[in-house]
Amino acid sequence: MSDWPIGISTGCFYQSSILDILEIVRDGGFTLIEICSFPKHLDYHDRDKIRQAARLIQKIGIEPVSFHAPFAEQIDITSLDETQRRDSVGELLAAAAAASELGVRHLVLHPGPEREGKPLYEEFRERLENAAEAIDQVASRCRELGLSLLLENMLPHLLFGHTQDMLYIMGAIEEPNVSTCLDTGHANLAGDIASVVRKLSSHLRMVHANDNRGDSDEHLPPGQGDIDWADVLQQLEGCGFRGALILE
Question: What is the C-alpha separation between 21 and 242, in angstroms, rounded?
């Protein structure tokens, strides 16, 4: 584990301005961060705030490895409504522009919406195709901006919450600069974290390390839930993982 960079998500402080917590993070011993896009924390539409955050990050010597794209009910790149789909892609492109200005390497994205359940087959396939087309657009812009796009495994009760759905999208997109981010808490709630690690391993570039007791997305520190971390770390080593672990 000594070869893996370890950082923290500023989403741990999502109710506070990023400008107020960066030095606290640095003083806590972290030099690597993932930046949260929650509006109260950092409004990715506010160019002045983005520039202020970028200057402060550079000044205090923290490396911003990734930026978590926004996710909300109204952001739905799978939508059957063309206007909502276009607007949702626009939000992600705005986030990519902010990520570039912040100097990060990766944009982390939930491939599906914050929507529960699975529709009938025809609608589900259409939504998968919509997601792949939208992600291609975002990934293309990320490539132009010098970013890579990482798709994160979602909570199992959400649309595209099964690993095979994300892998289908990975196979359907044309852009080459798309990889994956493992969320250990989401994988644990899916019931078989070992299987999720294996399925994502060939594309894996980052791990969101958090724990839970198997019944809700608690975002506990590693070791405070029921995840077998010795097994997870062994599997990551076995698949040759060389990315960053971000405490979430």
Answer: 28
